[in-house]
Design a protein that fits this description.
By secondary structure, the protein is of the alpha+beta class. Helices cover 39% and strands 26% of the residues. The protein is built from 3 helices and 5 strands.
């Protein structure tokens, strides 16, 4: 992050999710990009890009919906990156083999 405002944005997100079992079990590391966008590196699976104004409840709902759909079809391991930065959308990038 370039300045304290961007860091405080990340801290605010962390405070909102610190008592949420889903987020705390999923997240291994949080990256704050230069423009203040957040990205998480989960304990397992693809990186998850949250964007610059993450809303934990909305992001959780979208991510769980995506995970459940991919687990049903056995495709979850096929993705290298999941992008939740768009409202009510999940954009996933497949691994290139």
């Amino acid at each position: 992050a370039k300045n304290s405002e961007e860091v405080s944005h990340a801290i605010s997100f962390i405070k909102e999710i610190e008592n949420d079992e889903f987020w705390t079990s999923l997240i291994d590391q949080i990256i704050v990009h230069p423009l203040g966008e957040l990205e998480i590196i989960p304990r397992i699976g693809a990186r998850v890009f949250l964007g610059s104004s993450p809303k934990p409840e909305e992001l959780r709902r979208n991510l769980l919906t995506f995970y459940r759909a991919q687990i049903k079809t056995g495709n979850l391991k096929n993705y290298s990156r999941i992008d939740l930065s768009y409202k009510n959308q999940v954009i996933a990038k497949r691994h290139v083999y």
